[in-house]
Design brief:
There is one protein chain. With about 290 residues, this protein is α/β, with parallel strands linked by helices. The chain has one domain: Ribonuclease Z/Hydroxyacylglutathione hydrolase-like (Metallo-beta-lactamase, Chain A), CATH 3.60.15. The protein is built from eight helices and 15 strands. The strands form three sheets. A seven-stranded mixed beta sheet has the order 7-8-11-12-13-14-15. A six-stranded mixed beta sheet has the order 1-2-3-4-5-6, covered by helices on one side. The chain has a two-stranded antiparallel ribbon with strand order 9-10. α4 runs parallel beside α6.
Length: about 290
């Protein structure tokens, strides 16, 4: 199984766009990329904008060759209506736009699906369903909250099994900080997990100390999965320059159990490039 993060917060943009290839099936998950509109009172730096534009082109290239596209929810760092033409001829598995969805995401989803009506593709509502495609098992969780509450809506988690390996993509769980977010993970027992880490950069605002404690506890629970070999942790956590310090106990536990804990950038053998977290520095040095 080939797992290829295409864009991520550790690589300079807001995204979890990931390409997976297994048993000859090519799967794209959450083909979107965005930038934080404001950070430290500053708009995106030109270096961030350049990186986003580069990553958008990369995502388009991989969309062209994908057989399946998955959209776990309707935030613009997860999908892009302007890329709808690239979905032609694909199977599109998407978060149900009528159930367990907040008003903002419902508006974006309904507009997106109107655009898709003019495109030849196979749209499939995926919430809580299992599929067998060729020799690949594809499973989706029931909707779980986007973070600590339903204020930002719901997401679906993705499990892929093929080539004797398994991969789980949590989408935007921001932790995971709720029991229902880890139940799907614990039931699937994947070899590799791509986790959206805690929302620590908004600690005391949209994320409380107790939420962080629960998230760390849940990460340690996940670490107990015997089949687990690798955790890729990224997205919201990598908007915090102190991310490694915050999950130090989890990394240490991984070392003891032989489980690697890496960012998406590190997984690809690259240096972390936390452009949003370093925005003030980028402006100061430009």
């Amino acid at each position: 199984m080939k797992i290829l993060p295409l864009a991520s917060d550790s690589m300079g943009v807001r995204s979890m766009a990931t390409f997976v290839e297994t048993n000859g099936l090519k799967i794209m998950i959450d083909p979107g990329v965005a930038l934080g509109p404001m950070r430290d009172g500053l708009p995106p730096h030109r270096e961030e904008i350049k990186k986003m534009e580069e990553d958008m082109e990369k995502i388009k290239d991989f969309l062209r060759i994908s057989d399946i596209v998955i959209i776990t929810h309707y935030h613009y760092d997860n999908f892009n209506p302007k890329m709808a033409d690239f979905l032609k001829g694909k199977k599109l598995f998407f978060k149900d736009w009528e159930k367990m969805i907040n008003r903002s995401q419902w508006g974006r989803a309904s507009n997106f699906l109107r655009i898709l009506k003019g495109i030849e593709l196979e749209p499939i509502s995926a919430d809580g369903k299992d599929f067998q495609i060729s020799d690949v098992n594809l499973s989706f969780s029931h909707p779980v909250t986007h973070g600590v509450s339903s204020k930002l809506g719901y997401v679906i988690e993705v499990y892929i099994e093929g080539d004797g390996e398994s991969f789980l993509f949590t989408s935007d769980v921001q932790g995971p900080c709720r029991e229902e977010q880890i139940s799907f993970i614990l039931s699937k027992k994947p070899n590799t997990i791509y986790i959206d880490g805690p929302l620590s950069y908004l600690l005391g605002k949209a994320f409380e100390i107790e939420d962080l404690k629960i998230s760390l506890k849940n990460l340690k629970k996940i670490m107990e999965i015997d089949e687990l070999k690798l955790i890729i942790v990224d997205h919201h956590l990598l908007r915090d320059l102190k991310w490694k310090e915050l999950i130090g106990d989890v990394i240490e536990m991984g070392e003891e159990k032989g489980v690697k804990v890496l960012t998406a950038a590190e997984f690809l053998g690259k240096e972390n490039q936390l452009l949003e977290a370093r925005r003030k520095e980028l402006y100061r040095n430009s």
